[in-house]
Specification:
- With about 260 residues, the chain is α/β, with parallel strands linked by helices.
- The protein has 7 helices and 11 strands.
- The chain has a 7-stranded parallel β-sheet with strand order 3-2-1-4-6-7-11, with helices on both faces.
- It is globular.
- It binds NADP nicotinamide-adenine-dinucleotide phosphate (NAP).
- The site of NADP nicotinamide-adenine-dinucleotide phosphate (NAP) has 28 residues, from helix 1 and helix 4.
């Protein structure tokens, strides 16, 4: 077990990659604070962790809301008095649309959840992490880091690129506190993110790009699974990756190599 005696926060833990990571962290011995903005989803994840013999706390909060995130970290401090691992994972696809149809409110919503949310998660977590050091893992994407041909995913890709700059700035700043900061960049993963996606008139702007058979070379085109991303997050959370900070790792079966 790689996370015994550790306390981990997972945002967006109610489904998809966050849920798989929360369950894996708990199986590896961590006490897990599972945070999301939909109470019944978060309570279900906590119940599943308890069922597998783990320890977990449910926190209902919106990652884009400063005082809710400050309170979330206070709740972890009150419960366990420390925080070793943070997986800043909560995110939305938001509106994917041509620039003419991408409204200022659409832009703000995506940037607020994905980028401001990541900033707030880390900002309020760091003071509690300083006494022990630890590992922060940010969930970015192939979009905005290697793929720039998903026309319409502009706000999303900008938010994902911004997360990488945020992580690298903080990897340097926080090294003296023995806090590592790394980024995972998944390709297509089967999750519930389509529920958080609005596509508007993309046929008008997408260039016709012809790919070889199947867009994911390693899997003959099949999307990845949340558990495969969670395994990478565990590696970056654990002491095995002690010397690794300030870097992205793509977890996409080679998808972004085709399109980059
Ligand atoms: P998902 O199943 O929709 O999970 C996202 C989770 O974040 C959901 O539980 C969602 O809760 C929660 N969430 C959304 N907005 C939130 C907010 N403001 N405050 C708190 N929680 C919030 O999708 P996923 O694919 O696992 O996505 C996780 C991360 O992976 C995202 O950052 C995404 O950009 C990234 N990613 C995904 C893929 C992919 O192909 N799936 C690829 C690259 C990167 P509700 O469902 O209740 O809204």
């Amino acid at each position: 077990m790689q996370l015994v005696h550790r306390v981990a926060l997972v945002t967006g833990a109610g489904s998809g990659i966050g849920r798989a990571t929360a369950l894996l962290f708990a199986r590896e011995g961590a006490k897990v604070a599972a945070l999301g903005h939909t109470a019944d989803e978060i309570e279900q994840v906590v119940a599943d962790i308890h069922e597998q013999g783990g320890v977990a706390l449910s926190i209902v909060a919106d990652v884009a809301h400063a005082s809710q995130m400050r309170d979330a970290i206070s709740a972890i401090e009150a419960q366990w008095g420390r925080l070793d691992v943070v997986f800043a994972n909560a995110g939305i696809n938001g509106v994917w649309a041509p620039i003419d149809e991408l409204e200022p409110g659409d832009w703000d919503q995506t940037i607020n959840v994905n980028l401001r949310g990541t900033f707030l998660t880390i900002k309020y977590a760091v003071p509690l992490m300083r006494s022990t050091g630890g590992s922060i893992i940010v969930n970015s994407s192939v979009n905005g880091t290697r793929i720039f041909s998903n026309t319409g995913a502009t706000a999303y890709s900008v938010s994902k690129a911004g997360q990488v700059a945020l992580a690298k700035m903080l990897a340097f700043e926080l090294a003296r506190d023995r806090i590592r900061v790394n980024v995972v960049c998944p390709g297509a993963i089967s999750t519930e993110i389509d529920n958080n996606t609005v596509e508007r008139d993309l046929d008008e702007v997408r260039e016709p790009v012809i790919f070889p058979e199947g867009k994911i070379p390693l899997t003959d085109g099949r999307p990845g699974m949340s558990e495969q991303v969670a395994a990478l997050v565990l590696f970056l959370a654990s002491d095995v990756s002690f010397l690794i900070t300030g870097t992205e790792v793509w977890v996409d079966g080679g998808e972004s190599l085709l399109q980059g």
